[in-house]
Structures are given as C-alpha cells and as structure tokens.
Amino acid sequence: FLHYKALLEKAFNEDEFVLYYQPYFYTNNLSIAGFETLTRWRSKHHGVMLPGNFIPILEETGLILKLETFIIDQACRDLKLINSTKLNTDNLFSTSINISPISFKNEDVNKKITKILSWHKRNGKSNECGLSKQINIEITESSFLENPSKMIETLEQLKSSGFKISLDDFGTGYSSFSYLKDLPIDYLKIDISFVRNLLSNNKLKAITKTIIDLAHDLDLKTIAEGVETKEQFELLKSYGCDIVQGFWLAKPMQIDELIEFIGKWKIEKEKYLQ
Predict the structure, then answer these.
(1) Is 132 in contact with 161 (CB distance < 8 Å)?
(2) Secondary structure class of 42 (helix, strand, coil)
(3) pTM score > 0.70 for this model?
C-alpha cells in the first residue's frame, strides 16, 4: 500500500495521469450526446492501469481530491478544444466527471469546481456559465447514504450553478428508491451488470424496463452503460432508454482521437442505423 501511495504521489509530479473520453449516444438517431471522462494511470513501473487499480488507494489516502482537481481542469481545457473545432453546429458538447463520495464528505465540491471554472474564465479560456452547462457531475449512491441531507444540499448548489447531475450504477445499491424522490438529479445510469445479461434474462429485462419507466415518470433521462451489441441497443431503444454508451459504438479514447471520431461520426453512424 505505501509503495503504491508513493508511486501515485510521484505520478502527479510526472504527469502520468491521462484522460480518456467515451462518447454517449442518443438512441433515437445515434447523434453524440456527450462524453464520460475516464482516467488512466500510465505508470512507468506498471504500464497503463485502469481506475479500479488505483482509485481505491487515492480515496484512502485523500489523494483523490488532487486527482479530481486535475480531471476537472483538464476536462475544461479539452471541452474548449472540442467545441472550438466547430464539429457540432447545434449545441456545445458536454462531458461527465465522476466525483468520489470522499470529496463530498471532505470538501465543498461546488466551491471547488466553480473555482476552477472561474480561473478558466479569468484567463480567457472559456465562459464560466457556459462551462458549467457542459459538465455533468456523476455521483454514486454511497455518496449520500452517510449524510443525505448534506448531499442533497450540495447537489442543489451544483444545480443552481448550472451543472447536470447523474446517479451512476443505479440499481446496484440499497436505498436508491427511498432517496430518488429527493435527489435533484437529471440522469439515471443503468449499471452495466443489467445490460450485460439483458438478452438472456427475463427478470433483468423487467427490472431494466421498470427503471426506464420510473425515470421517465420522475422526468429523468436514462443512460445505459456497457452496450456491446446491436441486439442490446435495439432492446434498450424499444424500452425507451434515452442514451447509450458502450464498445459497440465507441471505446474510450484520448482527446485527439476523440476529435477525429466526432468529425467522422455523422457518416459512420449510418452503418449502425441500418
């Protein structure tokens, strides 16, 4: 543990953390709905490592707060780059950023994010208000189980600042339904564990359809993670799922590859719609 902590502290100094973006797509026409921001650690000692291998250590040591500051700042820079390319003529693209329960417990998340956005505004990087509308904050149920009233207050502050809120991994926790009515959220993300076996399990089909119907009744949109086949996509679309994400359509990619992908997608998507 101490060995990995030392390596992670060194990773910040040597810029070993890299952002990847995985696109979301609207089910009705497969246009790009936005992106999820994902982090990879390019360790000189262990190679490229996925979040599951280092996020728990960052959370336990408190270094997660430093990583999130880096992610938010770099995502703002990348959003400016993406949107300056004029690849999307209708609306500005947005990206979602996962915020750890540790952060909500130990710091003022709204103040932290708006401070970074204000810096970009002061330095001519972007419009602060515009940036907040381009960032979707992803939370998990464990974020609000310990102190739900404080969590709801923080989320309402974020909403008033212009951010969208997603509840990630929905359906895998213990108390989602009891708190759902009070949370100021915009999206429910259907966990990959539901999607993975969706075609072969009638109970999962029933649960997934119920989640989508419930979300719509609460005026929320749904995002399905882990869509890897056209058959999964078609079933989710028939259930009314609003947005999908998964390797069938696009893998996580770095910023340069993402910009190239966006430029080609209007033509490429036609083969998925056939």
Answers:
(1) yes
(2) strand
(3) yes
Separation of CA 49 from chain center: 19
Q: Are 223 and 25 in contact (CB under 8 A)?
A: no
Q: Are 101 and 143 in contact (CB under 8 A)?
A: yes
What is the pairing mode between strands 221-224 and 95-98?
unpaired
d(CA 217, CA 254): 36
> What's the rounded Cα separation, in Å, for the pair 226 and 244?
8
* pLDDT reading at 225 higher than 60: yes
Rounded-to-integer distance, Cα 127 and Cα 117, Å: 8
Confidence at residue 205, expressed as pLDDT on a 0 to 100 scale: 95
In terms of Cβ atoms closer than 10 Å to its own Cβ (0-12, 13-18, 19+), residue 122 is exposed
Dist CA 99 CA 90 (whole Å): 28
* Residue 241 · residue 24 · CB < 8 Å: no
Distance of CA 208 to CAs 112, 159, 171, Å?
A: 35, 27, 9
pLDDT digits (tens, 9 = 90+) for 32-73: 999 999 999 998 888 899 999 899 999 999 899 999 999 999
- Three-state SS for 263? helix
| pLDDT tens figures, 105-156 | 888 999 999 899 888 877 665 555 567 888 999 998 878 777 888 888 999 9
